[in-house]
From TrEMBL:
UniProt protein name: Glutamine ABC transporter, ATP-binding protein GlnQ
Keywords: ATP-binding, Nucleotide-binding, Transport
GO MF annotation: an example: ABC-type amino acid transporter activity
Domain of life per record: Bacteria
Organism this protein belongs to: Lentilactobacillus parafarraginis F0439
Length: 243
């Protein structure tokens, strides 16, 4: 097992609010790590820091042996290799589905338009939306928009995918299709860090589940260890509330 991401003593403060209080976390290649924890515990901040959407206050984030917490780290290289999917899909409503997916690779001159469009069509197929290339974003359901957002993230050929509560804003009947796309990604070996309240997904797909509370990792283990044999009192409380 080779290390893909190694977070060492990561601290993030906003003003005098210490949101991440020394996170240590290793994610191996091809591993699926699910992060659970109460609202406001710092889960989104952790993901956003991994993607350099937030500057870490202190600590290291080593990805492929490069410390991206270092101010000199090239932010574009970091972002290129890490795809992120948000709760609110953040698609461009004034563009078509295909244009959304093609945007980054074309703007960053990674692909010409033809190659980007071919790839967008391929990706739409993998998320079950092959007929939607020319559709307006607003004509899609929330679940379809989220699958487009996943395709858009994949268009940069990332080797890590971060998901921040990707199904939380969806109507219940849309959730399954999005989770299925994520399961397929996992099966194909994508390294994934997923913040979710979908415990069924965590049990089925996660190699490891990490419980974050108040800016700290209080427990981590296999889904069986976390869900069937939780040790930490606050984890047990949390599970009682959500299960
Ligand atoms: P979670 O995703 O677990 O619900 P967050 O990471 O969103 O938690 O938030 C953790 C804490 O950090 C909250 O108290 C939140 O108010 C604070 N926080 C998050 N982002 C910012 C920001 N950009 N500026 C100030 N405070 C923030
Ligand atoms: Mg959050």
């Amino acid at each position: 097992m080779s290390e893909k991401v190694k977070v060492i003593n990561l601290v993030k403060t906003f003003g005098d609010n210490e949101v991440l209080k020394g996170i240590n976390l290793t994610v191996n290649n091809n591993e699926v790590v699910v992060i659970i924890g109460p609202s406001g515990s710092g889960k989104s901040t952790l993901l956003r820091t991994l993607n350099k959407l937030e500057e870490p206050t202190s600590g290291s984030i080593i990805i492929d042996n490069v410390d991206i917490a270092n101010k000199n780290a090239d932010i574009n290289t970091v972002r290129k290799n890490i795809g992120m999917v948000f709760q609110h899909f953040n698609l461009f409503n004034n563009l078509t589905v295909g244009e959304n997916i093609m945007l980054a690779p074309v703007e960053l001159k990674i692909e010409d338009k033809k190659a980007a469009s071919d790839q967008a069509k391929r990706l739409l197929e993998t998320v079950g939306l092959s007929e939607k290339f020319d559709a307006r974003v607003q004509s899609l359901s929330g679940g379809q928009q989220q699958r487009v957002a996943i395709a858009r993230a994949l268009a940069m050929n990332p080797d890590i995918m971060l998901f921040d509560e990707p199904t939380s804003a969806l109507d219940p009947e849309m959730v399954g299709d999005v989770l299925q796309v994520m399961k397929n990604l996992a099966k194909n070996g994508m390294t994934m860090i997923v913040v979710t309240h979908e415990m069924g997904f965590a049990k089925e797909v996660a190699d490891r589940v990490v419980f974050v509370d108040d800016g700290q990792i209080l427990e981590q283990g296999t889904p069986d260890q976390i869900f069937e044999h939780p040790k930490n009192e606050r984890l047990r409380d949390f599970l009682n509330k959500i299960l």
